[in-house]
């Protein structure tokens, strides 16, 4: 079975998260230092600007540069250490639009399984956009390993 994620992915992501947090923290620390210096020197306008800038750096930096990596890390941990299931399905087609689930972007793939109580055979699973999509052949059977609805391993049958 071809695995989508590895421990190496998690280590690289953790290192990237640490670097980003260090940069955000360093910038915030410099702004806080300027705020403290200007507070002691009683430069009111510089104190207000530097405190506001510290808040902007922290909020913007964490939301834009750190939180997406945190969401992706949660996905990796679930894929590597969480519960997973295997199922045999027939590949049908990819969806035209992208999906965002829990802050992570995915390509939706439609597989055909056994009919449910409504007679529907379509089952949607997610493929991570950070990973190259394999050349799934329409109408061919695949054994999928998944967690939630995210494909974490696959193999042609």
Describe the structure in your own words:
This protein has 157 residues and is α+β, with helices and mostly antiparallel strands. The protein folds into two domains: 2-81; 85-156, OB fold (Dihydrolipoamide Acetyltransferase, E2P) (Beta Barrel), CATH 2.40.50. It contains two helices and six strands. It has helices spanning 7-40, 44-81, and strands spanning 2-3, 85-101, 104-112, 122-128, 141-147, 150-156. Strands 1-6-5-2-3-4 form a six-stranded antiparallel sheet, covered by helices on one side. Strand 2 and strand 3 (104-112) form a beta hairpin. Helix 1 (7-40) packs antiparallel against helix 2. The termini are close together.
Features:
6 strands, OB fold (Dihydrolipoamide Acetyltransferase, E2P), 31% strand, alpha+beta
Topology:
Elements: E1 2-3, H1 7-40, H2 44-81, E2 85-101, E3 104-112, E4 122-128, E5 141-147, E6 150-156
Antiparallel strand pairs: 1-6, 2-3, 2-5, 3-4, 5-6
Helix pairs in contact: 1-2
Strands, total number: 6
- What fraction strand? 25-35%
How far is the first residue's CA from the last residue's CA?
10 Å
Mind summarizing the main beta sheet? 6 strands, antiparallel
Helix residue percentage: 40-55%
Tally of individual helices: 2
Please state the oligomeric state of the protein chains shown.
Answer: single chain
Order of helices and strands: EHHEEEEE
């Amino acid at each position: 079975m071809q695995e989508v994620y590895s421990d190496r992915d998690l280590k690289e992501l953790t290192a990237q998260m640490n670097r980003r947090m260090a940069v955000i923290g360093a910038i915030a620390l410099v702004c806080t230092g300027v705020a403290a210096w200007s507070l002691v020197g009683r430069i009111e306008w510089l104190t207000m600007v530097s405190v506001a800038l510290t808040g902007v750096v922290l909020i913007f930096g964490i939301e834009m540069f750190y939180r997406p990596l945190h969401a992706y890390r949660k996905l990796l941990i679930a894929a590597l250490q969480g519960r997973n299931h295997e199922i045999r399905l027939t590949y049908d087609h990819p969806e035209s639009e992208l999906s965002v689930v829990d802050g992570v972007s995915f390509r939706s793939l439609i597989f055909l399984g056994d009919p449910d109580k409504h007679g529907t055979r379509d089952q949607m699973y997610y493929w991570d956009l950070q990973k190259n999509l394999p050349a799934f052949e329409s109408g061919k059977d695949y054994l999928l390993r998944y967690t939630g609805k995210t494909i974490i391993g696959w193999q042609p049958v």
